[in-house]
Amino acid sequence: QVQLVESGGGLVQAGGSLRLSCTASRRTFTSYGMGWFRQAPGNEREFVAAISWSGGTTYYANALKGRFTISRDNAENTVWLQMNSLKPEDTAVYYCASDRRAYRVGISAARYDYEYWGQGTQVTVSS
What we know:
- The protein is mostly beta strands.
- It has strands at residues 4-7, 10-13, 18-24, 32-39, 46-51, 58-60, 68-73, 78-83, 92-102, 114-117, 121-126.
- 0% of the residues lie in helices and 51% in strands.
- Strands 2, 4, 5, 6, 9, 10 and 11 form a 7-stranded mixed sheet that branches. A 4-stranded antiparallel sheet has the order 1-3-8-7, with no helix packed on it.
- Strand 4 and strand 5 form a beta hairpin.
- The chain starts with a strand and ends with a strand.
């Protein structure tokens, strides 16, 4: 079993920034891609960003490109999501997730390709 623990959420004004962290318990963290998803009330969970197991490739939801940045430190078993120029519509619970396939070629944005999920961290952006 892998535990993923997110932190860094909170309340921020529109235009502000937050940096989310996700730390994994798995020793083989370095073998798996990681993703961030979010879910707003009444909406389905949607893809935000993902990073390959090596950290060399990243992928973003089109609407978020240029504002969000995903990164990882394999020595720290941690992945981050830097969120800038936040908007009220970014308000959601943010979840990190671990790919179910080790050493995946490329990146998946599909929820079913992620096996382990964190408990989520609330991000609220006020207008």
